[in-house]
Each structure stands twice: as C-alpha cells, then as structure tokens.
Design a protein that fits this description.
The chain is 65% helix and 12% strand. The longest helix is centred in the middle third of the chain and has 80 residues. The strands form 2 sheets. A 5-stranded mixed beta sheet has the order 2-4-5-7-6. The chain has a 3-stranded antiparallel beta sheet with strand order 1-3-8. The chain is of the alpha+beta class. It is rod-shaped, with a radius of gyration of 42 Å. It starts with a helix and ends with a strand. The model has no long low-confidence stretch (mean pLDDT 78).
Length: 416
C-alpha cells in the first residue's frame, strides 16, 4: 500500500522540476483524497443520497477528471492540471448544489476554491478569473431561481465582499510566505557557498602542506647528490674545482632553503637556480659538458619552485653521464595561455641503454626525485585544475638512440 501511495503522489516528479515538487505532490494528494471520498459517496449514496442515478454520473465524471489531472501532471502540463482540477471541483459543486443536493448548501464550498487556486497557481489573472467564476456560480443560481433561499439571504455586495476579503487575505499571506521562502533560500545558498569555500580552503591547506612535505623530502636528496660530487672532486685532488664547487654549492643550499617554503618563485629566480646547478655539474663533469637555457618571453611570471631541476638531474645522471664525447643539454621555455612548457633535450645514451646500465649495477629503484615530482604535479592539478604533467620522448636517428626529450607542462602565475 505504501509503495502504491508513493507512486501516486510522485506522478509528475522529475529531477528538472525541483521548484515544483511541493505543489505537484500536494495536487496528487488532493486528487487521491478526492478519489477516496468518491468511493465512500458511491457506497453511501444509496442510503443517504437524494438522487442516486444523478449522483453516480457526477461521481464518474469526478473519476474522469482525477485521471485527467494525473495525465497532465505526468506530461509536465502542471498549470493546466491545476486549472482543470479547480474547474472540475467547482463544476461538480455547481451540479450537486443546483441539481442533486440543493438542500445541503454545498455552494458554500465556492469560498474555498479561489483560496485553493492561490495555493497552486502563481498567475494572477487565472486566480482572479477563478474567484469571479466562483462568485457568479454562488450568486446567479438564486438570481435566476435555480435554487431557493430565504429573502435577503443572497446580498451580492456582501457575498462579493466575503469572496474578495478571503482572496486578499490569503494572497497577502502567500506573498509574505514567498518572500520568507526566498529569504530562506538565499540564506541556504549563502550557507552552502560558505561551506564549499571552507571545504576548498581545507583542500588548499592540505595541498599546501603536501607540497611543502614533498619539497622537504626532495631537498636532502638533492644535497646528498651534491655532496657526492664534492667528494668526487676531492678524491681527484682537484682543489680549485672543489673550492669553486663548495662556494656555488653554498649559494645553491641557501636558495634551496629559501625557495622550499614558497609555492611559486619568479622565473628569474628559477633560471638563476638552474644556472648555478648546471655550473656545479659542469665543474664535476668537465668541459665536454655544455648547456643552454633559452627563455625569450617578455612576460613577468612566477613558476612552481624547484620543479624543473630533478628532470635536468635525471637527464645528466641517466643520459649524459654515461656518454663519451660531447655532452649537450638544452632547456627551452615556451609560454602559452594556460601553462609554461619546458623542453629538456639531451644527446645522451637514451633510456633503453640507461635502463640496462641501471640493471647491470643492480639499482632497480625508481628515481626518488621524479617520484616526488609526480606527486607534486598531481597536487598542483588538484589545487589549480590546470593541465600539468610531463612527457618523455626517445630520440632516434637511423634507429640509433641519440638522446631524450622531456616536455614538462607546469602552471604559472602572472606577477603583475
């Protein structure tokens, strides 16, 4: 029974009609209640009704009207369904009051129907039209002798005043209620917006903490590699190079500590940081290593701190360090509307040979720095919803590996 009841009162309910749900369900409940009363009247009219044959015809007409209202609700003709419902109960009241049960004063229901119209219908001309129809159906039958009342009972001015007063009072209440609902809805939207902003703030705070954590993990990794380079130079007894390396290394450590607490730094600071790092590597590798950094954009931008260096380190450690002869590394920047593209190209031995060397050395672990970078890029994407990531391209000439290209796509911010 509950399932049947729910199916009936939800006729005409769709996801794109949320603002109408209350009225749709209320009309369905009215029709269902009306139908239940009709069944009761059909059973009781043989015992208490004045004219059973006329009553049963009116009840059958009521059932037809109920089904028509449900059909109109189903096809989303909501206003028409409400008008049909009110006109149907008004017409049936007229039939019963004038032709079937003229002694029961059923015409008093006419006072209610304009108020029902106000509940269901927002268009003023429709509700006022229903008010006029109800007034005429209440007054005219006595005027033309269709029903008999005591003399002076049907005062048209008094009746119209009662109809109008009821209508005006309920209409005023409806307007106040609508204003209150709009105010409540506005407050609800403001609360939802505040909640979303709070959630977004929490998400950003979490992202910031995670980024700082990942940068903090990368710093010791970078310092360890740099100290290993200094150790190599000392073991080679290259005193001058060791001294120069330590001076630049100290500068790099200062920059790393300063930048690690910042999400973004200026592109000039990032380029200077990369230049110092590459000069350190050039001291370690020797004169056969050459590099270029090309940034020709005029825009003043900020980029994520310490994001590019691990890719350069990866190119050196896995591609160039094992190559004999000239070692070339080119870093090119291209600014687009949505991101900064950094292309890192080396003429190293290629990924396939590098992997073989790593396996031969028994070192099968994934680069820690790149693993941390992938996590940082993932956090950046969640925080800024921008296209971020990197793509590694193997370079070949006559089926021989001639190097590797990495295209890094990172977010940026305008400084001014």
């Amino acid at each position: 029974m509950i399932k049947i009841y729910n199916r009936i009162i939800n006729i005409g309910i769709y996801n794109n009609t949320l603002n109408e749900h209350k009225k749709i369900r209320l009309l369905n409940v009215f029709c269902l209640t009306w139908g239940i009363f009709i069944m009761f009247f059909i059973l009781s009219d043989p015992f208490f009704g004045k004219d059973f044959n006329k009553s049963i015809k009116a009840h059958l007409l009521s059932i037809v009207c109920i089904f028509l209202v449900f059909i109109l609700q189903k096809i989303k003709a909501y206003t028409l369904a409400r008008v049909v419902f009110i006109l149907a109960i008004t017409s049936l009241t007229f039939i019963f009051a004038v032709y079937i049960e003229d002694v029961r004063l059923m015409e008093n229901f006419y006072f209610i129907y304009p108020l029902v119209a106000l509940v269901f219908i927002d268009e003023k001309w429709i509700t006022i039209s229903i008010l006029c129809i109800c007034f005429l159906l209440y007054y005219l039958p006595s005027k033309f002798g269709l029903v008999d009342y005591q003399e002076g009972m049907m005062n048209p001015v008094l009746i119209l005043t009662v109809f109008a007063a009821n209508y005006i009072i309920l209409n005023y209440s409806k307007v106040l209620n609508k204003k209150n609902e709009e105010k409540l809805q506005k407050n609800k939207q403001e609360l939802e917006l505040a909640y979303l902003e709070l959630e977004e703030s929490k998400k950003n705070e979490y992202a910031d903490l995670k980024l700082k954590s990942l940068r903090a993990q990368m710093n010791p990794h970078f310092m360890f590699n740099a100290l290993n380079s200094i150790q190599d130079l000392i073991l080679k007894q290259d005193t001058d190079a060791s001294y120069d390396y330590i001076v630049m290394f100290a500068q790099l450590i200062r920059d790393t500590l300063n930048y690690s607490n910042q999400d973004f730094i200026s592109i000039e600071e990032e380029l200077e940081f990369l230049k110092i790092y590459l000069e350190l590597e050039k001291l370690r590798i020797g004169d056969e290593f050459n590099y270029t950094i090309n940034f020709k954009e005029n825009e003043s931008i900020e980029v994520p701190s310490l994001l590019i260096q691990p890719f350069i380190e990866n190119a050196l450690v896995h591609g160039l360090i094992h190559k004999t002869g000239k070692k070339e590394l080119h870093i090119d920047f291209k600014l687009t509307k949505k991101a900064l593209e950094c292309t890192i190209t080396d003429n190293g031995i290629g990924r396939q040979k590098a992997e073989l060397i790593v396996k031969r050395q028994g070192n099968n672990h994934k680069s820690f720095a790149l693993d941390a970078i992938e996590k940082r890029l993932e956090v950046f994407y969640k925080k800024y919803y921008e296209k971020v990531g990197y793509n590694i391209i193997d370079l070949y000439e006559n089926e021989n590996a001639i190097g590797t290209k990495v295209v890094l796509t990172i977010p940026y911010k305008m400084r001014f």
